[in-house]
Each structure stands twice: as C-alpha cells, then as structure tokens.
C-alpha cells in the first residue's frame, strides 16, 4: 500500500476532523473513503459514449428483447 502525504491549512484540517468525527471516523479514514468514492464514480465521457451506443442501437435491443 502506498502512503501519500499532503499539506492543508489549519482551518481545512479542523473542518476535516469535525466532519470525520460526525461519521465516527478518523480523518485518515474519512479521506480514504472520500477518495475511493471519487475514484469509483464513472467517467462522464464513458457515460456519454454508453448513452450514444444505447440510443443508436435502441431499435435493435427492442427487437431482441
């Protein structure tokens, strides 16, 4: 596992600690969960391409179902 060190100003660090506490997490856990959520979101370009393909082939999919 890799470790990344970042610097944030004191005010943001305080807000981070408060928000993490609301969820019953340590700041490190809160940041990790936030990053995992962000990385797990689909890429908007992929979503657009998938919608175009589905729309383009809509009639075919309806006939196959």
How does this model look, in words?
By secondary structure, the chain is mainly α. The chain has one domain. Helices cover 72% and strands 0% of the residues. The chain is built from four helices and no strands. The protein is elongated, with a radius of gyration of 20 Å. The N and C termini lie far apart (45 Å). The model has no long low-confidence stretch (mean pLDDT 89).
**Class by SSE composition:** mainly alpha
Oligomer: single chain
Helix content: over 70%
Summed up, the domain count is 1
Uncertain runs are none
Rg measurement, Å: 20 Å
Give the biggest sheet.
none
Portion in strands: under 5%
Order of helices and strands: HHHH
Tell me, what's the shape? elongated
Summarize this structure briefly:
72% of the residues lie in helices and 0% in strands.
Helix and strand layout, with pairings?
Layout: H1 10-22, H2 27-40, H3 44-56, H4 58-64
Helix pairs in contact: 1-2
Question: Characteristics of this structure?
Answer:
4 helices; elongated; mainly alpha; 65 residues
């Amino acid at each position: 596992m890799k470790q990344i060190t970042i610097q944030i100003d004191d005010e943001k660090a305080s807000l981070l600690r408060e928000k993490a506490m609301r969820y019953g997490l340590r700041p490190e856990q809160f940041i990790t969960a936030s990053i995992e959520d962000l990385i797990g979101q689909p890429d908007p370009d992929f979503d657009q391409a998938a919608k175009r393909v589905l729309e383009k082939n809509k009639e075919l999919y309806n006939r196959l179902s």
